[in-house]
Amino acid sequence: MAEKETEPKKQKQKEQSKETKEKKESKNPVREEEKNEILIRIFGYDIPSSRNIYSGLTRIKGISWTISNAICLKLGYPRTKKISELSNEDITKIEEFLNVLPVYAFLKNRRFDLETGETSHIYGTDIDMKKEFDIKRLKEIKSYRGIRHALGQPVRGQSTRSHFRKQGRAVGVTKKSSASATAKPAAPKAGK
Predict the structure, then answer these.
(1) Whole-angstrom distance, CA of residue 190 vs CA of residue 192
(2) In which band, very low, low, confident or very high, does the pLDDT at 172 lie, cut at 50, 70 and 90?
(3) CATH number of 34-103
(4) Among candidates 37, 39, 38, 43, which has minimal Cα distance to 68?
(5) 92-150 pLDDT, tens digit each
(6) 68, 57 Cβ separation under 8 angstroms
(7) Residue-wise pLDDT tens digits, 135-163
(8) Residue 43, Cβ neighbours under 10 Å: how many?
């Protein structure tokens, strides 16, 4: 008799789990749209056409929310306009604007470059390349930051006692090796 009562309960649980799965799937319509939608290429990056200009331009590496807002304001596009509504002329306008980027110097990401002394704004893989060269230069001149980079330690003054523990490089606590933990303790020496 108890078995007959549990079978309807199991069926109810299965139905409830199906309903919750359907609800979860319906909560993420953006992801479903992005799977089958058109991608617009701006400055070498694919941007989903369902995004608006303000958030879509931030998909380009090197463009922050502030730069994206400046693009919308200077070129006169509403921030809520969809990427799919942009014509080819609009896309070329945006790319030309990004090449020149007439904004204040403090908004740019490469200020007072050591090689040229100029303030510029870089995008995409150039950011990674410049960062690698900067770290390499710091290591070569053996500055404090360069030494910390070489050791794999935090560079900006964070404490290392409880965080930044990587395997084999623990600073605060040492762990017994597994071989010494399983070995039998040595017998005491006979002597005085």
Answers:
(1) 7
(2) low
(3) 1.10.8.50
(4) 43
(5) 999 999 888 888 888 888 889 888 888 888 888 888 899 899 999 999 999 999 999 99
(6) yes
(7) 999 999 999 999 999 988 888 888 888 88
(8) 18
Residue showing tokens 């549990």: 6
**Domain layout of the chain by residue ranges:** 34-103
Q: Name which of 111, 106, 132, 135 is nearest 122 in CA terms.
A: 111
Contact 50, 82 (CB under 8 A): yes
105 and 111 Cβ atoms separated by less than 8 Å: yes
Record the pTM. 0.60
Residue in this structure with the two tokens 């701006």, named with its chain if needed: 42
